[in-house]
Amino acid sequence: MTADADPSAIRSIAVSRDDVVDAFVYGRENPGAAVLRVTPPFHGRMRARIHVYRADDARVTGAVHVHPETLLEDDAVASYPALEDEREDASSDETERVRKRHAEAVDAWRERAREAIAETVALETPDGSTTVSVKPLE
């Protein structure tokens, strides 16, 4: 592995608050996966960007995938609003009210979660896990 392809060189990652929150919500509301992705060549300070996929390509690309829940404080992850289960025979009006309440709850959660970015995160490297600083961007 060349020095540029070694993720253990990373000391910090910069992340957009919106990317972290959007990736987390996407993973809860959709069948695909969303991560924050860091791509080689690696150096001390890196930018992680949102990446949505159905098949993990990290081994092929050499990218490091950071799961959004690891970038959020535990309280923010735990407080994500779950979609309420409704009876199968619920009327369309009741179903629409549940969806609207859920959307409003997720919007409120998003605002709180933007301020709950973790200070550090563990990255998996070929040599094992390494902890790096997280630098939130506006």
Helix content: 25-40%
The radius of gyration computed from the alpha-carbon positions, rounded to a whole number of angstroms, is 18 Å
What's the SSE pattern? Answer: EHEEHEHHEE
Residue runs with pLDDT of under 50 for 5 or more positions: 85-89
Mean pLDDT: 90
Overall 3D form: elongated
Strand order in the largest sheet: 4-2-3-1-6-5
Class inferred from helices and paired strands: alpha/beta
Structural summary, described in words:
This protein has helices at 17-29, 58-61, 74-78, 92-114; strands at residues 12-16, 33-38, 45-53, 64-66, 120-125, 128-137. With 138 residues, the chain is of the alpha/beta class. β5 and β6 (128-137) form a beta hairpin. Mean pLDDT is 90; it is low at 85-89.
Concise overview:
With 138 residues, this protein is α/β, with parallel strands linked by helices. It has helices spanning 17-29, 58-61, 74-78, 92-114, and strands at 12-16, 33-38, 45-53, 64-66, 120-125, 128-137. It has four helices and six strands.
